[in-house]
Amino acid sequence: MEENAERIAIVSDGREYSYRMLADAVRAEEARLAAANIGPGHVVALIGEFSFAALACMLALFFRKATVVPLTREAHAKLGKYVEQLGVDFLIDTYAPAEAAIQPAAAQETKGAQASSDWRSILPGDTGGLIVFTSGSTGVPKAIVHNIDSLCYRYLDKKEPLSSICFLLFDHMGGINTVLFLLFRGGTAVNVAERQVDIVCQAVQKYRCQLLPTTPSFLSQLLMSRAYASYDLSSLQVVSYGTEVMSEAVLKKMNEVLPGCVFKQTYGLSETGVLQIKSRSNDTLWFKFIDAGVQSKVEDHILWIKTQSNLLGKVLFTEQGLKLEENSHEWFCTNDLVETDGEYLMILGRQTDIINVGGLKVYPSEVENCIHELPFVDDVFVKAKKHPMLGQIVVAYILQNGTLEKAEAERLIKRHCLARMEKFKVPSQFIFNWENFVNDRFKKVRSP
C-alpha cells in the first residue's frame, strides 16, 4: 500500500480515501484487534459492506491471521443461525460505533459444542482465512473455508491500476475477488450505496470507472432503462459479467450501446474462487480457462474442475450437527451444463435449471435467447411449471417495449420459436404480467 500512498484506494459514502489513509487505518485496526486478543485460530463474523471501515478491518484481520466471515446486514439476518452454529469467536459490526463494534460471540451451549468445533481443525495457522456461504438457493447453505494467501496467488502479477465499481456484494466470492484484484494493483474501489441502475451509472460517470463487474440480469435492466443514454459511460473499458448465464441477445445489444468496451465473461464458484478465463471474442459466450492453476474436463456435459486449491474444506449443516468435508484435492463437480468446441466451453445453465418436458430436456437460456431476438421484447424469463401429464412444461414471462396486443405478440413469438427450435422447446404458456425474478444478488431465480 505504501508504494501507492497518494492514489485513491476507496471511494465510499461520497469520500475518497488514499492508500496512505488505508494503511494507517489498517495499522490502527490491527492494534485494536491485538488489544482484544484476536489473532490466529479465531473466527470473526464481520458485518459490513465495501466501506472504508469494513475494508480496513478485513485487511487487519487477515494480517492478524484470523479467519473472516464477511456478511452484509441482510446476509447476517438470513444466515445468523448458521453463523452461530459455526461457533464464531467474535462479531464485529462496522456500522456500530468503534467502541462497541467488537463483541465476543455468545458461548456455544448446545450439547454438540465439541462436535461443532471439530471443523476448526482445517483453519490455517500461519495465514488468514476466509469463509463464504453458498447461496443456499437449492437448500441449506454450506460454509466454504479458504486459505486467503492461496486465494491471492492470481493477483501477484504487477498490472496497471484501474478504478472499478464494487457491484458484487461484501459476502460474495466475486465481490471479494474484485476488491483484492484492485488493491493488489493499486486501483480504486468505488462502493455504491445501492445496486440500482441509475446509482451505478452515476458513480461510473462521476469517478470515471474503467471496470464494471456485474451480472447479466443487471445488464438487462441497464438496457431496459436506457440509462446508457442518460449518463457518460465512456470511461468504461471492461464490463465483466458472471454468476449466471448471459443472454446472447443482451450481450449483442450491450456491444451496440457500448461499442468501445470489452465484455469479459467471468467464471467462479464459492468453492474455487474466481478463475481466469478468456472469451473467444467480445460478442460470444464461448470461453476457455487460462488459469495456470486450473484443470478442467467435461463428463456427460457436466463441467468438472481441479484447482491449485485455496479451498480448505466445507462445513455442512445437517440435522445431526456440523459435518466437515475436507478438501480432497480431487476433481470438483460444478453442476454446470456445458457445450464444448475444442478447448472452448459455453455454459448452458445449472443442472437444476433444466426443464424436463416428457423426458426431453429444455435449457431455459436457449429459449430466452431465441425470444430475445424479437425487437418488441425487452426482457424474457423462462422457467418450468409442473404438469400432470408431461412432468413439466415451458413457461415464458414476457416484458414488451411497445404497444403490441398480447395475442399478436404471443402469435409472433410462437412462430419465431417454431422456426428456430424443436416444438417441445416452444413455451406452452406466455405470461405478460412481468414479475421481478432477480434476487438480492442480481441473479435470476428459476425455482418451479
Largest sheet: 8 strands, mixed
Strand elements, count: 28
Q: Give the N-terminus to C-terminus distance in angstroms.
A: 48 Å
State the helix count. Answer: 12
Residues in β-strands, percent? 25-35%
Query: What structural class do the secondary elements suggest?
Result: alpha/beta
Name the shape in a single word.
Answer: globular
Bin the helical content: 25-40%
Strand arrangement across the biggest beta sheet: 6-5-3-4-7-8-20-21
Question: What is the CATH class name of the domain at 354-431?
Answer: Alpha Beta
Task: Using the 3D structure, state the CATH architecture of the domain at 354-431.
Answer: 2-Layer Sandwich
Q: The CATH topology of the domain at 354-431, please?
A: GMP Synthetase, Chain A, domain 3
Indicate the radius of gyration in whole angstroms.
23 Å
This entry's quaternary arrangement is single chain
